[in-house]
Amino acid sequence: MTEEPFDPTLDGSDRAGAGRPASPFSLALDRLQRDPVLFVPFVVAGVCLWLLDWIRRHDPLPTIPAEQTGATVTVAYTGYPTGVTETARALSSLIDLKLPYLVWGITLEVVAGFVIVAAGTVTIARALSADSGGTTPRRLLAYAGLVALFDVAFRILTALVGDDIGLIAGLILVVPLFVVFVRVFAAPAFIVSGSGPVAALQQSGRATRGRGWSILVLVVAFGLAAWLLGLVPWVGTILSTALIGSVHAVTVAVVRETATDGHGGR
């Protein structure tokens, strides 16, 4: 006997009350409570990323440690469901390496990206139930393309901005950045539903139209929560990935579904 995907429409319990739709966040928590299997992909991903943290700390290649000081509050949001790792590796650290070290460094980063792509695709597909069509290699590849697009854009922005930036200049950059985060919030779910990266970004923009403030709250909340959980010693990577990654992925699926129900997401 095989287990059927969670059906979000069962008994109409994805509604807060008589005719009043619940928030995407509360719907996501309800689905996770009723279908705990949704946590499994990001739990596995969190353990894998934790192991990669350990490997990075012990291999000869330079790493970028996560900031563990309490002087700075960080919104660790990247545009797709993930967690906060304890270590990272700058692309510049791979320059001029001998071939064996170059292959080693690239392999670790590819593995890290793959586990997040796989966890996001599987979780969102299950949360979308029959509407997603399941997980296929094509959708994994499209999701990987979206993640790569976000990562490249983030790395370019980080390189251009640097660490020494004033308050006014920071606000000028942060405001449009968060506008973009809001507009692309549902893009991962449209990818899993079968759209290409460009079409998914366009559909997400339409799906989030008219409810930007509520999604902005989700973006900030997920980013702060991921950062705080990432500060927990030893297990921060696992906690932030397993909890925030899972909740974020299911919330993205809910936003996509509610958009097609009445907000013009298709």
TrEMBL record:
<feature type="transmembrane region" description="Helical">
    <location>
        <begin position="213"/>
        <end position="232"/>
    </location>
</feature>
<keyword id="KW-0472">Membrane</keyword>
<feature type="transmembrane region" description="Helical">
    <location>
        <begin position="101"/>
        <end position="128"/>
    </location>
</feature>
<feature type="transmembrane region" description="Helical">
    <location>
        <begin position="167"/>
        <end position="192"/>
    </location>
</feature>
<feature type="transmembrane region" description="Helical">
    <location>
        <begin position="37"/>
        <end position="55"/>
    </location>
</feature>
<protein>
    <submittedName>
        <fullName>Uncharacterized protein</fullName>
    </submittedName>
</protein>
<keyword id="KW-0812">Transmembrane</keyword>
<feature type="transmembrane region" description="Helical">
    <location>
        <begin position="140"/>
        <end position="161"/>
    </location>
</feature>
<keyword id="KW-1133">Transmembrane helix</keyword>
